[in-house]
Each structure stands twice: as structure tokens, then as C-alpha cells.
Design a protein that fits this description.
Layout lengths: L1 H13 L8 H33 L5 H14 L11
């Protein structure tokens, strides 16, 4: 299921540059691709989390979750400008 969801989402996303023509056709197609990509992404996230929790011993659950969050957030782009409030 995990591989199918990723392949479906990525396969649709790779076809976005091929969209051209009138906006009456392009906009609904882009909305459909965004919907499928969003659903596929959530399906992959839930599946990965369930597998991770199933194979990780109870005493390591917190560390595993913290490591995954650190790795995911650490690789995400952030605003380089400090905010003053």
C-alpha cells in the first residue's frame, strides 16, 4: 500500500508540466492532482508511523519519534531572518 500510494502521488505530480490549454481544463486538473497528492501523502505518513511504532520497542518510542521529527524539521527550509516581537 505504501509503495502504491507513493507511486500514484508521484506519478500524478510528474505529469503536471504536461498540462496546458485553457484554464477551464487546467485548473480542475491541478485541483485533482493536489487532492490526490495530499491524500497520498497523508496515507504514506500514517503508514510509515504505524510501521515505525510497531517495530520500535516501547522504551524507545519517544527517542524514535524525536529523531524522526528532528531529521524532518532539520532538513526543512526555514526563514533565515530572526523575528522581533
Amino acid at each position: 500500500m505504501l509503495v502504491c500510494a507513493a507511486a500514484l502521488g508521484d506519478g500524478l505530480f510528474l505529469r503536471v508540466p504536461a498540462l496546458h490549454g485553457s484554464s477551464a481544463v487546467t485548473v480542475p486538473a491541478l485541483l485533482a492532482v493536489g487532492f490526490v497528492l495530499g491524500c497520498g501523502g497523508q496515507l504514506v505518513n500514517v503508514t510509515v508511523m504505524a510501521v515505525r511504532q510497531a517495530v520500535t520497542p516501547d522504551g524507545m518510542q519517544g527517542r524514535a519519534a524525536a529523531t524522526i521529527t528532528f531529521a524532518g524539521m532539520g532538513t526543512a527550509p526555514h526563514d533565515a531572518q530572526p523575528t522581533c516581537e
